[in-house]
Amino acid sequence: MDSTLATHIKNVIRKEAEGLLSDVLSVPELICLCLQNAKNKNNAVSNRNNAISYIEDILSEEYNHGSLKIALYPHESKIIAYAMIILCSENQYYLHKIYVDSEYRRRGLGSRMLNEILDTFNPMCLLSAVGNDVFFEKNGFSIVGTFLSKDVPGCKLSSSPYDGLSIMSTAKDSKSCGFFLLGDTDLKEIEKLLLSS
What we know:
Layout: H1 3-24, H2 28-37, H3 41-65, E1 68-75, E2 78-89, E3 92-100, H4 109-120, E4 124-128, H5 133-138, E5 142-146, H6 156-159, E6 166-169, H7 184-195
Parallel strand pairs: 3-4
Antiparallel strand pairs: 1-2, 2-3, 4-6, 5-6
């Protein structure tokens, strides 16, 4: 892998780690920890960076093992869009993220990306917020259920921010859907990192 591509992959993983930490910090138990830890701002910034690095390591490990695929869409020297696909099991994929830079939205790039991805990675599932469903339905997905954290063993804390999201799939049932969430063990480690002095 050339150094420019490696840098882009690293930047995408960093951005996603920051997003996952933001999602995780919406869990009530962890919000309290952050508020307690906010008294020492230097520690809080350092601890937040350590938590992001921990999540980056998880994503990098998945990428290095081949179970996380990252599709990059460059324009000149800038990545204007990307997608993150997780191999959940043999021939079962989860679209963890599709992102288009705001300057390039509403030009059909997201649909083109998704169609290219589905040519290779299908069947595919994803979690979608209300309002985004229409985009995915236009691109071959159907709503097959509603995500409930109680249905995900070992991920009770990390899955609660996603409660109520639509489960969407290119297959016709949700039984073939897999997801990527940080597990409760990971959240306990993140908690330690956020609280360290």
